[in-house]
Amino acid sequence: MTGWWEGAVGYQIYVRSFADADGDGVGDLPGARERLPYLADLGVDVIWLTPFYPSPQADHGYDVSDYTGVDLVFGSVADVDHLVADAHRLGLRVLIDLVPNHTSDRHPWFADARASRDSDRRDWYVWRDPAPDGGPPNNWVSHFGGPAWTFDEVTGQYYLHLFLPEQPDLNWDHPEVRSAFRRILTFWFDRGVDGFRIDVAHALVKDPGLRDDPWIDGPPADDASPQEVFAALDHVHDLDQPAVLDIYREWRQVARRYDAVLVGEVYLLRPEALTRYVEGRDGLHAAFCFPVLKVDWDGPRIREILQRSVAAGGDRLAWPLSSHDDPRAATRFGGGPTGSRRALAYLALLCALPGVPFIYQGDELGLEDGEVAAGADPIAVRNPGATGRDGARTPIPWAPGPGYGFTTGEPWLGFGANRHDGLTMLAQDADPGSHLNAVRRLLACRRGLTGLHAAATVQWLDTTPGVVAFRRGDVLAACNAGDRSAVVTLPADGELVHATGGDTRVEDRELHLPADVTAYVRLPS
Ligand code: NOJ
């Protein structure tokens, strides 16, 4: 694809854990703004800010009660304006998070809808009579545990919520819902934002008959976690309905006028399912590819997932290294120094693919999940024993000392027992051998690889088992996910232009690659 997005590197700011300027313990927009020069220096091109809108915070901002405001805890609309202006001065683009699948149950739209069956906005949400036994209208389940339906005593019907009961799903068949969101897009585009990350982009439209989803292998055990229950259903009726693309076709028209991009959180785990979201010129500009963030440190498996993903979406995909919803890459890949080394190698691999790699805040420091007692994420709070998302959301350690330079107050969530001064941004900044400086070198090198950026296609190479290797343009990228050093035979004499770890060398048309390292070799074009 073409435009400012091409060749970019993204960075996700989970606002409440990034930087707190006013000392209330919660990250905010002025705090993020102060750190923009750090991000420009890191070498990223586009930042994505997680929701900062007014919200009761039942799901930490993904329950929006006003789409054109800013929650006091995060700042003001003027703070968004200042942040966008500074970002643009620094050459950074700004994506903000749009949450169109559901609102907060405190949104005035829902207050109106639930007041009476005759309310003007009743049909902005999905209401159904109880099943004959008085239970929910179908077998859909919430991502966060329990049925996807809550009974409303006042009006005697159930409403649908694919997430918390505090997050009622909007009815996207309603033309006024559609026009309301077109106005929201325009509101933020007029303020200068460069695009949206679209939350749950694969789920806005549901099966018109709200039919039951089939169980894959029968209903799960009584003690199954919410994630296991959700995975036990074949989501053919509640997710991934083709008609959702009609919405993005409308939005694309709006975005086009502002040279803005739409990047979908299409949380589907088969890469092939992403294709229809991004193909052609009127779908989403890009979709996040979550299969790459689910994979273990296993060469053949990584190769299979990357190969299938590139075939499905090519340069129209965004590659998340980690996110606020999943364990961090360093944790996924084994934790400790090895986990961080692998996470760096994986980032380098993603950086060589067509499409846009996304660093999640703290990945550049090689952070593992913070070791905190589950206490904030509703998944863990409401489902005793379930794994929540708090570990990936602990605040960023910027500097040694109390509050780690994140806050002068009491942080809303602990940093984690495994944090120490050596992990802080300041300590790493001063150490040429740090993870932070390795990421800076990687992004600087990537930027200069013109032959890589010029090529949209990838040629996969069969090398030693455990090594994932491909050629893109004049660059050969190879990642050794095996357990010992490997030798990769090169198709021609090449020059080693980058390696994420020492002891990597090119000699006699061979790349000597230690375990857990990625190297870039420039070949004659
Ligand atoms: C995906 C978001 O990333 C996640 O944090 C949120 O809980 C759900 N969507 C619901 O909005």
Give a written overview of the molecule.
This protein is of the alpha/beta class. It folds into 3 domains: 10-100 and 174-206 and 241-444, TIM Barrel (Alpha-Beta Barrel); 108-160, Oligo-1,6-glucosidase, domain 2 (Alpha-Beta Complex); 456-522, Golgi alpha-mannosidase II (Immunoglobulin-like). Helix content is 27%, strand content 15%. It is built from 15 helices and 19 strands. The chain has helices spanning 29-34, 36-42, 77-89, 108-115, 175-190, 226-232, 244-258, 275-278, 299-313, 329-332, 336-352, 378-382, 425-429, 435-448, 450-453; strands spanning 10-13, 46-49, 93-98, 127-128, 149-152, 157-160, 195-198, 261-264, 286-288, 317-320, 356-360, 459-461, 467-472, 475-480, 486-489, 495-499, 505-507, 510-513, 518-522. β5 (149-152) and β6 (157-160) form a beta hairpin. α5 (175-190) runs parallel beside α7 (244-258) and α11 (336-352) packs parallel to α14 (435-448). The two termini are 22 Å apart.
Secondary structure topology:
Blueprint: E1 10-13, H1 29-34, H2 36-42, E2 46-49, H3 77-89, E3 93-98, H4 108-115, E4 127-128, E5 149-152, E6 157-160, H5 175-190, E7 195-198, H6 226-232, H7 244-258, E8 261-264, H8 275-278, E9 286-288, H9 299-313, E10 317-320, H10 329-332, H11 336-352, E11 356-360, H12 378-382, H13 425-429, H14 435-448, H15 450-453, E12 459-461, E13 467-472, E14 475-480, E15 486-489, E16 495-499, E17 505-507, E18 510-513, E19 518-522
The chain binds 1-deoxynojirimycin (NOJ).
